[in-house]
Design a protein that fits this description.
The structure is a single chain. The strands form 5 sheets. The protein has a 3-stranded antiparallel sheet. Helix content is 42%, strand content 12%. It folds into 2 domains: 275 residues, HUPs (Rossmann fold, 3-Layer(aba) Sandwich); 76 residues, no CATH class. By secondary structure, it is an alpha/beta fold.
């Protein structure tokens, strides 16, 4: 038996299928020419970030306007950080803005499973293939040995990492690796890089144009000691076999491009197209920084839902970030559905977009002002039932009165625009209900 095959069989004794079987099981999608297959791939580690909603909106719109497919994959391979139920919550929050995947880890689909931890059989097949081809190998280095390598590199002022002469296990023979595994040694699987720092990895980013990086020389980990894949490897496998055509993601992933290109080229798969979106920033004094989960309430989509910002207004605000010509289009089409506007990668900003709460408030005010009395009454009632029970009870006590109140100065050339969000309504109109009117009178009479 071929010694590499023996090593691969030792690591994956249950794997009987090959890559050709996966190609048949997950064939290319039958879609119209030019149709895009895009995705949103959250980790179940917390709330939906505003930047993630922005990226999802862009991915979803490109799929919809090209008559393609938008799917949602749950990336749960870092199980130490997983928060139970947060993946489902993310989909609920997306749906509150009308962003509903065609395929997901809830609704399913032909190209599933849509949860990475359930796709292990796919990763195993591909990693076994890479070992057989000499493109991957087991690494037995301990944390202490890796720390020693790092200290040596720092002392010599060399680039840190596992590469070249520092990649100790790269130079083990297959027989040595087999012996260590049979002895029960713990290991990870690393990709055998053929990169050269003197050469360039080139990507034609759909937003930023041609970008060059030094090739990747690191022998990155592709399978952890728990036999689950790392992000870089899962991206390669999942986006190939889910037939993703366009990867839209934040610009913080640009530095990973050399690794991803190298992986696709090594295995001989067609690369998806990449579009790296601007990161949403916040002004702090005279500096800009990324929206922070820990510091900024605006970083959480949940904040805007609880406050009652209309979904229409929030999405429209994000569209102004997505394309520089959207606001000009809106002036020419003041009452049009925002999705009549076609997104264009060439019209996206290259710089971080500054989150502007005042601008969001103005847009939300315009969208609420443009609603009919029945529309705003229905939307406000739905919001109140979930987030403000006292308001909901008042509405239910006299829903006809509430809709009449919402019709005041609505319509015409200059409709009322004193509401920014649904939570603004009740404090302004509550005295019109008998219970709250009497309460206000009693409070006024108390000296």
């Amino acid at each position: 038996m071929n010694i590499r095959l023996r090593l691969a069989n030792l690591i994956f004794p249950e794997v009987k299928k090959g890559i050709a079987d996966l190609e048949k099981e997950f064939p290319k999608r039958q879609l119209p020419e030019g149709a895009m297959v895009t995705r949103f791939a959250p980790s179940p580690t917390g709330f939906l970030h505003t930047g993630s909603l922005f990226a999802s909106l862009v991915s979803w719109r490109y799929a919809k306007q090209s008559k393609g497919v938008f799917f949602c994959r749950l990336e749960d391979t870092d199980q130490k950080r997983e928060i139970s139920g947060s993946g489902d919550k993310v989909l609920e929050e997306l749906s509150a803005f009308g962003i509903i995947p065609d395929e997901s880890f809830v609704s399913g689909g032909t190209y599933g499973p849509y949860v990475q931890s359930q796709r292990k059989f796919i990763y195993d097949i591909v990693i076994k293939h890479l070992i057989e081809q000499g493109l991957a190998y087991p690494c037995f280095c301990t944390h202490e040995e890796l720390d020693h390598i790092r200290a040596e590199q720092e002392a010599k002022k060399e680039n840190p990492g596992y590469y070249g002469a520092y990649a100790k296990c790269r130079h083990l023979s297959e027989i040595e690796a087999i012996n260590k595994i049979e002895e029960g040694k713990s290991f990870v699987i690393r990709f055998r890089s053929n990169g050269d720092e003197e050469k360039k990895a080139v990507v034609d980013d759909l937003i930023r144009g041609r970008i060059e990086f030094p090739e990747n020389v690191q022998d990155i980990v592709i399978m952890k000691s728990d036999f689950l894949p790392t992000y870089h490897f899962a991206h390669l496998v999942d986006d190939h076999f889910m037939r993703t055509t366009h990867i839209t993601r934040g610009e913080e992933w640009l530095s990973s491009i050399p690794i991803h290109l190298q992986l696709f080229e090594a295995i001989g798969w067609e690369k998806p197209l990449y579009a790296h979106l601007p990161v949403i920033m916040k002004q702090e004094g005279d500096k800009r920084r990324k929206l922070s989960k820990r510091k900024d309430v605006e970083a959480s989509v949940r904040f805007f839902l609880e406050q009652g910002y209309p979904a229409e207004g929030f999405l429209e605000y994000l569209m102004t970030i997505a394309n520089t010509n959207f606001e000009e289009w809106r002036l020419d089409h003041p009452m049009a559905n925002i999705f009549d506007f076609k997104l264009d990668f060439q019209k996206m900003s290259l710089d971080g977009a500054l989150f502007d709460l005042e601008k969001l408030s103005n847009i939300s005010k315009e969208r609420l002002g443009a609603m009919s009395a029945s529309e705003i009454a229905m939307n406000a009632t739905t919001w109140a039932k979930e987030y403000q029970p006292e308001f909901a009870r008042a509405i239910e006590s006299d829903s006809h009165l509430f809709e009449q109140l919402m019709s005041i100065e609505r319509g015409g050339e200059k409709p009322r625009k004193d509401y920014i969000k649904y939570s603004d309504i009740f404090p302004i109109i509550q005295f019109m209900f008998d219970e709250y009117y009497q309460k206000a009178i009693d409070e006024e009479l108390v000296f």
